[in-house]
Specification:
Distance between the termini: 81 Å
Number of domains: 2
Number of strands: 0
Helix content: over 70%
Strand content: under 5%
Structural class: mainly alpha
Length: about 110
């Protein structure tokens, strides 16, 4: 027993580094699995059921975080004004722009005969 404790004490620094890396990788893998991959797969298989189950949770989240979102938008507006940046984007689409998009889509075969 005494020999093992001495070995651990001797390799304390390397064991600490290895355990830190391993725990980081484990937590990251679990997060990706449970927070990203599994929910997407379940939602793809049974989308209507998932949507109906989480509607009330989504509405509660919107209600709960609305003041926080309002505050962040206010801070962003202050920063935008401080740097004298435009607050809105000009979204004018000309007739020629629309024709160009339709022509390109037709050339690529994305428009079907309806």
């Amino acid at each position: 027993m005494g020999l093992f404790v001495a070995d651990v004490a001797q390799y304390h620094t390397i064991l600490l580094q290895v355990s830190t890396v391993l725990s980081f990788l484990l937590i990251t893998a679990m997060f990706v699995l449970f927070a990203d991959l599994l929910p997407k797969r379940v939602a793809m298989v049974i989308p209507e059921s998932i949507a109906m189950r989480f509607t009330s949770l989504m509405l509660a989240s919107v209600w709960l975080f609305k003041p926080v979102i309002w505050l962040f938008n206010l801070m962003a507006d202050v920063i935008i004004r401080a740097f004298k940046l435009p607050n809105q984007r000009d979204e004018l689409i000309t007739r020629d722009d629309l024709f160009a998009v339709v022509d390109q889509s037709a050339e690529q075969g994305e428009l079907g005969a309806h």
